[in-house]
């Protein structure tokens, strides 16, 4: 009976593990830097060091940048992402919180071209810029991405619930057979 319980627990653990889904993974990049029209700031997110392999699949990604404006000016934030040059400009004439140490967070979902760029080699380049006369401080950046869970379709295999049920019937038969011998 103890062996039967051990097998049942092992089967339950396998079933639970196979139904787990991938959780979002976070990569951080960049160094606090002043950004002006004459001096844009570029940096790179590298997700290869988080277990991603080049050519893998990603369900979606969001780039978040934190900014500050210690000079209390008016500026427009321009963010250029990837080889497809996905351009993001939040809009308005004063995109960054002025003074008092407050931070502005900007979240940018990656479009299809930028996502394809990221999946190609696990790297994505980002350039922060502003309008003439504008300036702000880039504080940090994070890239949250979710690996795609792809289940291959194979018509020749027996579906898992049926296989587990069949295995359970077989184990029950073994249990009854060993009981009958005793």
Explain what you see.
- This protein has helices at 2-18, 112-121, 160-181, and strands spanning 25-29, 33-36, 41-46, 58-68, 77-81, 86-88, 104-109, 123-130, 135-147.
- With 182 residues, it is α+β, with helices and mostly antiparallel strands.
- It has a domain at 25-147: Sf6-type phage tail needle knob (Jelly Rolls, Sandwich).
- Strands 1, 2, 4, 7 and 9 form a 5-stranded antiparallel sheet that branches. It has a 4-stranded antiparallel sheet with strand order 3-8-5-6.
- Mean pLDDT is 76; it is low at 3-21.
- Keywords: Signal.
- Pfam families: PEP-CTERM.
- Residues 158-180 form the Ice-binding protein C-terminal domain.
- InterPro entries: Ice-binding_C.
Number of strands: 9
Name the CATH superfamily classification of the domain at 25-147.
Sf6-type phage tail needle knob
- Main sheet? 5 strands, antiparallel
The CATH topology of the domain at 25-147 is: Jelly Rolls
Instruction: Bin the strand percentage.
Output: 25-35%
Q: What is the element string, with H for helices and E for strands?
A: HEEEEEEEHEEH
Low-confidence stretches: 3-21
Q: Helicity, in percent? A: 25-40%
Radius of gyration: 26 Å
**Integer average pLDDT:** 76
Distance between the termini: 13 Å
- Morphology call: elongated
Which second-level CATH architecture of the domain at 25-147 applies?
A: Sandwich
How many helical elements? 3
Structural class: alpha+beta
CATH class of the domain at 25-147: Mainly Beta
């Amino acid at each position: 009976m103890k062996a039967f319980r051990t097998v049942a627990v092992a089967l339950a653990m396998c079933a639970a593990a196979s139904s787990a889904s991938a959780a979002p993974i976070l990569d951080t990049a960049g160094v606090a830097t002043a950004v002006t029209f004459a001096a844009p700031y570029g940096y790179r997110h590298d997700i290869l060091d988080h277990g991603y392999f080049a050519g893998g699949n990603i369900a979606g990604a969001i780039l978040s940048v934190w900014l500050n404006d210690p000079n209390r000016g008016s500026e427009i934030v321009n963010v250029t992402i990837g080889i497809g040059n996905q351009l993001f400009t939040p809009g308005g004439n004063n995109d960054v919180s002025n003074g008092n140490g407050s931070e502005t967070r900007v979240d940018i979902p990656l479009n299809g071209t930028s996502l394809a760029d990221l999946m190609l080699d696990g790297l994505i380049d980002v350039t922060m810029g502003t309008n003439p006369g504008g300036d702000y401080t880039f504080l940090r950046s994070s890239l949250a991405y979710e690996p795609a869970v792809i289940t291959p379709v194979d018509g020749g295999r027996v579906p898992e619930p049926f296989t587990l049920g069949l295995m359970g019937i077989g184990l029950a038969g073994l249990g009854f057979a060993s009981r009958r011998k005793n």
